Amino acid sequence: MATFAKPENALKRAEELINVGQKQEALQALHDLITSRRYRAWQKTIERIMFKYVELCVDMRRGRFAKDGLIQYRIVCQQVNINSLEEVIKHFMHLATERAELARSQAQALEEALDVEDLEADKRPEDLMLSYVSGEKGKDRSDRELVTPWFKFLWETYRTVLEILRNNSKLEGLYAMTAHRALQFCKQYKRTTEFRRLCEIIRNHLANLNKYRDQRDRPDLTAPESLQLYLDTRFEQLKVATELELWQEAFRSIEDIHGLMCLVKKTPKASLMVVYYAKLTEIFWTSSSHLYHAYAWLKLFTLQKSFNKNLSQRDLQLIASSVVLAALSVPPYDCSQGASHLELENEKERNLKVASLIGFDVEPKSENREVLSRSGLLAELVSKGVTSCVTQEVKDVYHLLEHEFIPLDLASKVQPLLTKISKLGGKLSSVSAVPEIQLSQYVPALEKLATLRLLQQVSQVYQTMKIENLCNMIPFFDFSIVEKISVDAIKHNFIAMKVDHMKGAVLFGQQNLESDILRDHLAHFAEYLSNARVMIYPPLKRAKKLGDALSGLGETVEKEHKRLLARKSIIEKRKEEQERQLLEMEREEESKRLKQQKITEEAEQRRLASEYEQRKNQRILKEIEERELEEAQALLQEAEKRSKKKGKKPVLEGEKITKQSLMELALSEQLRERQEMEKKLQKLSKTMDYLERAKREEAAPLIEAAFKQRLVEEAAIHEREQQQEIELSRQRHAGDVEQKRRLGRMLENKRIFQEGVVSRRQAEFNRLRQERQDRINQIIQARQQERETRRRMIYYLRSEEERLRKLQEEEEARKREEAERRKKEEAERKAKLDEIAEKQRQRERELEEKEKKRREEVLGKSTILSPRPADLSSAARPSEPASTPPATGAAPTAGKYVPRFKRQQPEGAAAQAPPEADRWGGGSRADDRPPQPGDRWRDDRRPSYTSGASRSTWSSSRPRG
User: Fold this and answer.
1) Which domain of life is it from (predicted)?
2) DSSP 312
3) What's the whole-number mean pLDDT along residues 219-237?
4) Looking at 696-817, which runs of residues are DSSP E strands?
5) Hey, how many other C-beta atoms are within 10 angstroms of the C-beta on 197?
6) Phi-psi region of 7 (alpha: psi -120 to 50; beta: other; left: phi over 0)
7) What are the DSSP E strand ranges found in 475-525?
8) If you count Cβ atoms within 10 Å of the first and of the last residue's Cβ in the chain, which end, N or C, has fewer?
9) Of the candidates 868, 904, 872, the residue with the CA atom closest to the CA atom of residue 888
10) Residue 129 CA, distance from chain mean position
11) Pairing of strands 505-508, 497-500
C-alpha cells in the first residue's frame, strides 16, 4: 500500500501511471488513498481525486472498486459537504450512461456496415458457415461482445448508487432521480428481470426505513417534500410496470403506494389518485376481476368529475359509459357458491384487502368496510347519477339487460346496440391518466350477460324448448358456447336447466320447487314401495354383489373424506404455527429494539436525573423539615384532645415538649389502638367461620341426592337417543337400496350414450392423428430440403474457396517467375554496362597518355621560345573560342582545353563550330540540352561522370607540374 504525504501527490502519481498505460496501478493507488484513515477530513483535492477515481472505474468497468470508494467518500463528506458526494455520483452515472450509449451506437454501426447484399465480397466463408451452424446473427454477437458488458456495468452503477443513497435525508432528491433513471432504463430496453429486482430493492429500502427509526440521517416521511419524492417514485414504478405488462409487479406497486399512505396517514393529491385508479382498471381487467374493475372505474369517474375542471361533455360521457359497461360486465351470480370454508375465508380476506385498495382508506376499520357486490355497485351508479351521463346506446343496453322482461326478443334488440357500442371510443382531450377509451372491450362480456339474461327469462316462461329455437334466439354464440355458459350458471345456482341431446331439447326446471314436508312424504312412500317390491321380486345375486361393492365404496369415500379433512386441519395448524413463529420473531425483534432504546433512554435519564437530584435535594430536605414540624404540632393537638376526653393530664409540659417526644407519644397511642382493633376483627372472623361450617354440613346430603337423580335421568335419555339413531340408520339404508335399484334401469341408456360419445371421439382422434402425421411429414420434407440446400451451399463454398486458393497459388508462381526473369535481365544489363564502362576507361587512359606526351613536348619547346605575356594571358582564358580550329590529330595549343567531340569528330565535320564550353558543366553535354533537376554541378578541379557508363574529364587550364 503506497503512502503519500499529501493527496496531491497521489493524484500526480495516478496521472503518471495513466500516461504510461498502467491504469490498474493508478486505480489501486487512488483506492488506497481514499480508504486510508489519514485522509478523513474533506478538502477540494479529495473531490478531484474522486472524479479521477470514478473515471478510472468506469473506464475499466470496476464496479466493486467504485462502490467501496463512494462509501468511504460518503463517510468523509456526510457532515461537511454532502453536495460534493452528489456531484461525484452524478458524474459517475453520467460516465456510465455515456459509455453504454457509445457501445450501443458502435454495435449499431457495426451491424449496418455488415448489412450488405454481396456476401462473397464482405464476408468470408468461415463467417457464413459459422452463421449456418450456430444460428446466431451478427447483431447478437456484437451485442454480446460490445453492448452487454457496458449495460451490465450501468445496471450495477444504478444499484450501487441506490444502495449508497438509501435512507439519507440529505440526498433524497438524488435517490429519487437515480430510481427514475433506473426505471427508465428497464423500460427502454425491456429489462423485466432487472425491473423486478429494482422494485424489490426500493421496497426493502422503505421497509428498513420504517424498521430502524433511530437512525441519525433517516428521512422524515411526514415532511411534504420527502413524501412527494417517495410517491413520485412509486407512481413511476407503477407506470413502467403497466407498460412492460408486468401486472403482478404493478399490483404490488399499488400495494406499496397504499401502504406508504397508510403509514403517513395522508391521502395523495387528486392528480396522483387519477393515475392510481387508471392503472387499477388496467390491472383488474387483465386479471378478469370485473367487479373490482368496475369499482375502480367508478372511483376514477368520481375524481374526474370532482377535480377536473377541463373535462368536456364527450369525455364525461365516455368515462361514464365505461363505468356502466364495466358494471354490467360483472357476472350476475355469486361465484363463491359451493366453495369450501377455507376458500370462503380467503375470498373474504381478499375482498377486504381489495376494498381497502379501491376505497383508499388510510385508516382501515373492519366494521366500516363495505362489501363489494354487483347489486350494490349498480345501486350506487343510479344514486350518484352516473347512468344519466352515459350515451343513449349504453342507457338502452342497461335498461334491456337489467329491467326489461322480453325473453324472445332480448338478444335481437341487444345485438344492434352492441354493434354501435363497439364503434364508440377514442382519445380523451382532458384526461391525462386515461389517454384513450375503447368500449369495444366490453362487448364479449355484454354478449355473455345477454345470453344469461335470456336463459333466465326463458326458464321462467318455458319448461321445454328445442335446441334449434334456442340457437335462433341467441345470435352471439354457437350452442356449444351457450352450453358452457349455462353449465357455469347452473353451477352457481343462477338457472336450473338440462340439455337432452337425444331429443334435441332443453328442459327448464324451477328451483326450490319441493318443500321439506312434501319431500319427506315422497321419501317415505318411495321407501314403502321399495320394501314391497323387494318382498315380491327378490334381488338377484349379481345385484347383491354390486350392492356389497357399492357399500364398500361408500366406506372408502367416507375414509377418504375424513383423511382430506384431517389433512386440511393439519395444513391449517401448520399455517397457524408458522404465523405464530413469525409473530414471535417479530415480537423478539421488537423487544430487542425496545430494550436497546430503553437502555439509551435510561442512560440519558440517569444523566438528567443526577443533575435534577442535586438541585432537588435541598428543596426536599427543607420540605421534610417543615412537614415534620407540622405533623408534630398536629400530634400535639390530638394528644391534648384525647387527654381531655379521657380526663388525663398531658404527659409533657409546655417547656419540656420536643418534636421527637411528641412523635413517640403519638406513635405509641396509634399502635395501642391498632392492636385493640385487630383483636375485635379476630373474634368476628371466628364467629363467621363457625356459621359457614354449619351451613355446609346441612347442605351436603341434599347435594348428593340431587346428583344421583341426575345420573338416572341422563342414562334414560342416552338409551332413547341411541334407539332413535339406530332406527334412522335403517331407514336411510333402505332408501339408498331403492335409489340404487331405480338408477340401475338407466345403465343400458348410459352404455348407448357412452358408446356414441366414444365413437365420435375416436373418429375425431383418428382425424387429428392423421392431420398431425401429415404435418410431421411436411415438416420432415421441408427440413430435408433445407439440409440439402445447406449441404449444397457448403459444397459450393468449399469449391469456391479451393478455386480461389488455386488462382492465388498460380498468381504467386507467376510473380516469382517474373521476378527471377527481371533479376536475370538486370544482371545481364549490368554486365554489359560494366563492359562498356571498362572500354571507356581504357580509352580515357590512352587519351591521358597522349595528352601527357603532348604536354611534355610543349613544355620542351617553351623553354626554347619564351612566349609573350599577352599570349600567355589569352591562352590562360579557356572560355574564348579558338579562331581557327585545329585539324584532327594535330597537337592542340599549349594550355588550352580541347573538347572531346573535336577529338573524335571526323574531318568533314571540322568546319562546324562546337558550343562554347560551360565552366560549370552545362555546355559539355553532347545533346545540347539545358540542365535537368537530376544533374549534379561539377567543379573544374575534380572529374565528373555523365549518366550511364560514359564519363568526361575536365582538365584544368593551368599547366600541371
Assistant:
1) Eukaryota
2) -
3) 82
4) none
5) 15
6) alpha
7) 497-500, 505-508
8) C
9) 904
10) 37
11) antiparallel
Burial of 279 (0-12, 13-18, 19+ CB in 10 A): buried
CA distance linking residue 628 with residue 647, whole number of Å: 28
Measured CA to CA, the distance from residue 237 to residue 243 in angstroms comes to 10
Euclidean distance between CA atoms 21 and 920, whole angstroms: 59
237/609 Cα distance (integer angstroms): 50
Q: At what angle do helices 290-307 and 341-359 cross, to 10 degrees?
A: 10
Residue 769: band (very low, low, confident or very high) from pLDDT cuts 50, 70, 90: very high
| 201 compared with 639, residue with greater pLDDT | 201
Distance (Å, rounded) from C-alpha 212 to C-alpha 194? 27
Nearest residue to 325 via CA among 243, 448, 412, 432: 448
* Rounded-to-integer distance, Cα 189 and Cα 908, Å: 100
Residue 333 corresponds to which cell in the numbers above? 351470480
Determine the angle formed by the axes of helices 44-60 and 7-19, rounding to 10 degrees.
Answer: 30
Q: Is residue 329 within 8 Å of 449, Cβ to Cβ?
A: yes
Alpha-helical regions (H) of 143-191: 148-165, 172-188
Residues 426-434 have a mean pLDDT of 67
Count of beta carbons in the 10 Å neighbourhood of residue 221: 16
What does the alpha-carbon distance between residue 738 and residue 532 come to, in Å, rounded to a whole number?
11
> What pairing do the DSSP bridges indicate for beta strands 497-500 and 464-466?
unpaired
Which amino acid makes up residue 112?
E
3-class SS of residue 429: coil
Give the helix ranges, DSSP H, for 268-389: 270-286, 290-307, 313-328, 341-359, 374-383
Q: Read off the pLDDT of residues 100-128 as tens digits, 9 standing for 90 and up.
A: 888 877 776 655 444 444 334 444 454 54
pLDDT recorded at residue 547? 55
d(CA 923, CA 931): 9
Between the CA of residue 301 and those of 184, 440, 538, what are the distances in Å?
A: 29, 19, 73
**Closest Cα to residue 330, out of 452, 438, 483?**
452
Q: How many residues does the chain have?
A: 961
Q: pLDDT digits over 783-814, tens only?
A: 999 999 999 999 999 999 999 999 999 999 99
Are 463 and 469 spatial neighbours (Cβ–Cβ below 8 Å)? no
Q: Which three cell numbers stand for residue 851?
A: 595528352
Question: Which of 272-286, 670-684, 762-776, 907-921 comes out lowest in average pLDDT?
Answer: 907-921
- What string of DSSP letters covers 653-699? -TTT--HHHHHHHHHHHHHHHHHHHHHHHHHHHHHHHHHHHHHHHHH
Strand duo 944-945 + 505-508: pairing: unpaired
Buried b or exposed e, range 564-598, using 16+ CB within 10 angstroms: eeeeeeeeeeeeeeeeeeeeeeeeeeeeeeeeeee
Give the Cα separation of 414 and 416 in Å (integer): 6
Cβ atoms of residues 538 and 499 within 8 Å? no
Residue 268 is classified by DSSP as -
Q: How is residue 337 written as a grid cell?
A: 357458491
d(CA 229, CA 178): 12
Which residue do the cell numbers 377455507 mark? 342
How far apart, in whole angstroms, are the C-alpha atoms of residue 99 and residue 95? 6
One-character DSSP codes across 872-886: HHHHT-TTSPPSSPP
756 pLDDT tier (thresholds 50, 70, 90):
very high
Burial class (CB in 10 A: 0-12, 13-18, 19+), 106: middle
Amino acid at 141: R
As a whole number, the mean pLDDT across the chain is 77
Rg of the chain, C-alpha, whole Å:
58
Read off the pLDDT of residues 862-883 as tens digits, 9 standing for 90 and up. Answer: 555 444 444 434 434 444 433 3
* Cell numbers describing residue 726: 339406530
pTM for the whole thing? 0.50
Separation between Cα atoms, residue 190 and residue 200, nearest integer Å = 17
